[in-house]
Amino acid sequence: MVQGNLANPMVRKTNFSAIDTTSIMMYFMPAEMNIERIEIKPNSKLSPLDKPFAFLNYPFLESTASIDPTVNVPSSNATIGIEGEFKDAILSEFNEGDWDGLTDEFTRWSLNEKAKAVAAKIHAERENAKVEAPSVEGGQAVLA
Length: 144
Fold this sequence. Notes:
Elements: H1 2-7, H2 50-57, H3 73-80, H4 84-95, H5 99-132, E1 135-137, E2 140-142
Antiparallel strand pairs: 1-2
Helix pairs in contact: 2-3, 4-5
């Protein structure tokens, strides 16, 4: 846990967005303390990427307004990079006033992004294995 969260912050699991070193969820860390040598400064404010994730994950039942007037469902989808059927489904749930449905669709998008990331990792590992595996010619192993 410590290794994954502190010593190597850029490799840790994410919510399938780009790593946001300005996120309020990042731990303060001098560059000397992590493998990537990236300084993560102390932060007490929501970053531009924190706001749409919070808005879509924790919607207000009484109101659809955010404290920040620039954060709304369409801008959150655009900032996070939600497109296609997922964007349409989230907007549909929002227009129907169904916040539970909206968060369900956002979760569906998140799971789909995870599945794509896992598939890409498996594909890359297979490609690397092909490159690293010795070929056999006439019974003799030949390194590529």
